[in-house]
Structures are given as C-alpha cells and as structure tokens.
Automatic annotation (TrEMBL):
The keyword Transferase applies. The active site is at 495 (nucleophile). SUPFAM superfamilies: Nucleic acid-binding proteins, S-adenosyl-L-methionine-dependent methyltransferases. The gene is LOC105047999. Residues 24-44 are annotated as: Disordered. This is Uncharacterized protein LOC105047999. One of its GO terms (molecular function) is RNA methyltransferase activity. It comes from Elaeis guineensis var. tenera. S-adenosyl-L-methionine binds at residues 368, 399, 420, 468. Transmembrane segments: none annotated. GO terms for biological process: RNA methylation; RNA processing. InterPro entries: MeTrfase_TrmA_CS (IPR030391), NA-bd_OB-fold (IPR012340), SAM-dependent_MTases_sf (IPR029063), TRAM_dom (IPR002792), U5_MeTrfase_fam (IPR010280). Residues 57-117 form the TRAM domain. Belongs to the class I-like SAM-binding methyltransferase superfamily. RNA M5U methyltransferase family. Keywords: Methyltransferase, S-adenosyl-L-methionine, Transferase.
Amino acid sequence: MAVAAFPSCGARRLNARPWLHAVRSSASSPSPPRSPTDVDGLGTAPTYTAAASRSFFPKRGQTLELVCESLAFKGKGVCKVVDTGFVLMCDRALPGERFLGRVSRKKGNYAEVTKLKTITPHWDLVEAPCEYASSCGGCKTQNLAYEAQLRAKEQQVRDLIVRVGRFSDGDPECASVLKPIVPCDLKFHYRNKMEFSFGARRWIQIDSLTDDQDQIQRGHALGLHAPGFFDKVLHIEKCLLQSEAANKVLAVVQDSWRDPDLNLSPYDVHTHAGFLKHLMLRTGRDVKTGLPEVMVNFVTSSYRPKLLEPLINKISAIPEVVSIMNNVNSSVGNTSVGEEEYKLHGKSTITEMLRGLTFQISANSFFQTNSHQAEVLYKLIEDCAGLRGDGSEIVLDLFCGTGTIGLTIAKRVRHVYGYEVVAEAISDARRNAELNDIRNGTFIQGDLNKINDKFGSDLPKADIVILDPNRPGLHMKLIKYLLKLQAARVVYVSCNPATCARDLDYLCHGVADQGIRGCYQLKSIQPVDMFPHTPHIECVCLLELR
Ligand SMILES: C[S@@+](CC[C@H](N)C(=O)[O-])C[C@H]1O[C@@H](n2cnc3c(N)ncnc32)[C@H](O)[C@@H]1O
C-alpha cells in the first residue's frame, strides 16, 4: 500500500542548529523576549543576567566563588558569581551549593565553569547510593533528594514554556495547563538497556585519586564514558540503574575479560586496534512467567566467535541469559549497531510486555528504556488521545519507532498509520502487529524532515496525531503539514522540553516572520519522570484545534 509521499527515505543526521535561527528570530513578537543564550544548541539558558553583571565578564581559567540557584536544561546548575551576579553554568552544581569553580568556556553572554571544590553543600542533600555517582556521566543528581529533582524538572518545563513557548504564566487558564510531574515509582533498576564500553584508557574518579595520580590511567576498563570524553572509560563493576540480572552478567564479564589467557583486547579509539568495543545488556520479561530475560550483545571490531567462547560459556550459565548476540562493527565510529549480526547463544530476540501487548526486541531495535514508566506514559498518551471508544478514529503515529504507541491503541480505533525513518524499526513494528494479531496498523518508512506537499494526501484524514520525535523536535515542514491538516487533537510526546516548547509555540501562535498562523490551543502539559537521577524530562502535551 503506497501511502507515503517522501522524496527520499534515507536516514540523515538530525541537527538542531537550523532551528536556532527560528527560535531567535521570533523574539520580535510582542510576547516576553527569549534569552539569546543557548545551551549546546538545544535549549536556552535562563535569563538571569543582572544589570550589575554586564560590566563583569570572567576570564577563561579564572577561579570564582559561586552559588547555584537552580537547575537548567541538561541538568546544568545555573550559578551566580557571589559579588556581581554574573551567570555561569556548571555541570553537577546543585541548587543552594556554594563552591569554587574555574571558568572553562565563554559562550555568548554567559560562561561555563568546572566545579573545583564545594564550600557549602546544596539544599536537599542525600547520600548517593552508587559509588560512582560523583564521576559517572549516567546519574548526575543522585545526591539530590528525589522530591527536589522533581521540583527542578517541573520548574524547567515551566520556564521553557513561558520563555520559549511564549505561554503566559500570569494567565490562570495557562497556569492550569501545566500539570504536576508524575514521579517514577522505581528510583533504581529501571533501565532495561545499558551500553558499556571497553576502553584502553581508564578514567579514575576524582575522589579516589592520590595526589600524584593523573585521572587518566593506562589500565583497561569496561564501563561508562567519562563525561565529555569519547576515549576515556570509567571502570564500573555494577550499575544501579540496570536490572539485578544484568548486573550479574556485568560481574561475570568483569571477572574474566582481562584474564591474559583469554587474549581479549579492548578496542582503542585512537589506534583503532583491539577487539572488544561495547557490551550491551537488555532486560525483558518472559511472557509466560513474567521473569526477567537478558540479552547480551557483544559489539566487536571483527567476527571471531572462538575468542568469545570462554566468556559465552560463563555468561550462558546465568539462568536469566536467554540470548547472546554479536554485532560486528569494523568501522572506526563508536556506534554499537554492527554491519553484521550473529547469534552466539539462545534466541535472537527477547520479549517485553506493554499495556497488555507483547513486543519482540532485537539487539538494535528501539524500545522505551524504562518499561515500568512506559506503562504510565502510554496510559497518559491514550488518555490525552481522548478516544471515543467506537473504533471510528484514524490515528497518525509519527516517529513511531517499533510501533509501540500506535499498537497499544490500535484495538480502539479504525486505523493507525505509523511513520518512522529507521527501516529495521518499521520491520519490528510490522512483526509486533502480527505477533499481537493487530491488522489495522500500517507502518511506513520515511524521513519526516523531508516530506513534500503530497505527504499524507493518500490517507484518510487523521482525527488524532501522535508525535514522538527525538530531541531536535519537529522540522518546519512537519509543522506546516500539521497546521494544514487540522486534526482535532494532537498529542505531542517529547523528550526535550526546549524543542517541545518551541514547537508548541509554532503550532499555537504561528510563525510570524513566515506568515504562518497557529491553529491549536494548548490544553495540557504533563511532565513525566522516566529517568530519576538524570536531567532527562519527558512531557505529554495535548493540543486541540481552535
Ligand atoms: C523518541 S523515539 C519514539 C519511538 C516510539 N514512538 C516509542 O515510543 O517507542 C523517536 C523515533 O523517531 C525516529 N525518527 C527520528 N528522526 C526521524 C525522522 N526525521 N523521520 C522519521 N522518524 C524519525 C527515531 O528513529 C525514533 O524511532
């Protein structure tokens, strides 16, 4: 069935930069001006610059005494110089913390700073249960009380909706739009997928350094990348975010892989020599028993199964391990998706259940990373969709991945059309539809950044559009399509409140400098915490046609 109108279906690198111009240029509108500053091209830094600070701009390398006031996009602390009020952004600074920091980078009208020493700790301080918390790039806010993490996330969404989205928080109707964040019941062990890297250069945590030690060590490592470094790996024996079963596998691999008799070498990203690149662990559930099942995926630079055999023998003895895969990636890139995939033990997929359906997950398929909270998220999406329940609606599921959102509502609607750029995800979506005996779903591969005027013209008109883009949000072509389509309801699921706020602005208020009028009304924004201890924020937004 040919229903798509994509001039080209190839994947392309998504880049948020072209949007910056659009975000900045619409500051000519009468609503409150947005901050001209930008955090790593995706969001905006809060506008805190006090008049007194304009005369003060710190020099690179300068050490300053700072106080952190709040958390902003990507979990960076918004900090002020004690004497002048000048704003600096600092990774791992938490609200209330007074500290010494060294200026590392100047950016527009603010600067970035590296924390050197805490003078007085932040408010809501708790002990981080993980021994790697102070250095690991995975969890940045483990030592901030969970309630404070939630408050900070909620505040960020509110700030972005007002500054970037141009919705007024003074308007009582608008104030009621922003719902309190939904917490995650599972604070640890919530991730069903972790990817560890093998490395030739080990990164030592600052607090375990002796005076004469450098942070970079020669020893081999298996763990997570040191924040901001592609070539340094923090050695990790156990991760509190993944399942206990996955930690059993990690422990067995850590126990054996450096044994010289095994002759296993980590891949060196500088010399491009070495064999082991990544260890990916995915946890699903056995559909019949509900017990965890684990897939182990070794990403290697070449196909040498004999070399892996001793490790496989040990890992396959762990009862939860039902699948061992090998993705071979001979390119110099850091990706874990191999150009060839081999099954080394057991099955080539694991299963997970979501809203009563069963999903098969292969080594490289996209699946919501927190299955427990995905259940909550999908229920919210379905509630927002406001289905009549008579099976009459047409639903467009844009950025559908493996089809999970569309499939979980398919039984209550007439037809679901899913669009997604990754061909393998589309195959998974079709297979998942079959597995769950769903026949009213059509999944189409195509790039939603490259749609043309004919896009969707051979589909029945959609009553509901569900959007779940990744971090860069919606391309202007898609915004224009949605404004022309005028579906009664749009449910926008976002993992980036900055680009989400921008897109909501376009859909509701239009794009003045392009003569585009908005036609939607923002009815609700529901932040959901999918990833405790990390800066990530998910939002489910409901728009209705005005
Ligand atoms: C956040 S995921 C959502 C997946 C799915 N809705 C779910 O809940 O599992 C975003 C999806 O958008 C896809 N995607 C990214 N850019 C795209 C584009 N330009 N056109 C179509 N799909 C795209 C990604 O491959 C990914 O599967």
